[in-house]
Amino acid sequence: MEQRVVVGVGARRGADGAEVLRLIDSALAAAALPRGAVVLLATLDAKTGEPGLRSAALALGVPLVGHPAALLAGVPVPHPSGAARTAVGTPSVAEAAALASAPGGVLLVPKLTSPTVAVALAAARPRATPAERTGDPT
């Protein structure tokens, strides 16, 4: 089964879509995964209107979803940031959004940053086959 990943993205206002994609490509390279493995971009709900994030999602052909800061603040992450907490009310956007959008998943690539963007990759839990859902081994 091909690995599916969720990309969590944190970005400053006005972050460039090309920069978002460059950082996503770096994270994918670190995990030895192709762009086709990405199934979703996730971020803070207040950032879903950012043109750079929207253009990156469009270029990847995946949806862009947002989560409230209160939800993201409750997701344990390995690299919390005081600056993010002050700016947007959660100690993590990229790692927390990736994990929140991949329930039961695991962080594959922790937060990578550029001057205006942060990304993290979480493994999306594979969908169960009909046999797995029913417990039928055939």
UniProtKB/TrEMBL annotation:
InterPro entries hit by this protein: CobE/GbiG_C, CobE/GbiG_C_sf, Precorrin_MeTrfase
Superkingdom field: Bacteria
Location of the CobE/GbiG C-terminal domain: 5-122
Pfam family, one: CbiG_C
Protein's name according to its UniProt entry: Cobalamin biosynthesis protein CbiG
Source species of the chain: Kitasatospora paracochleata
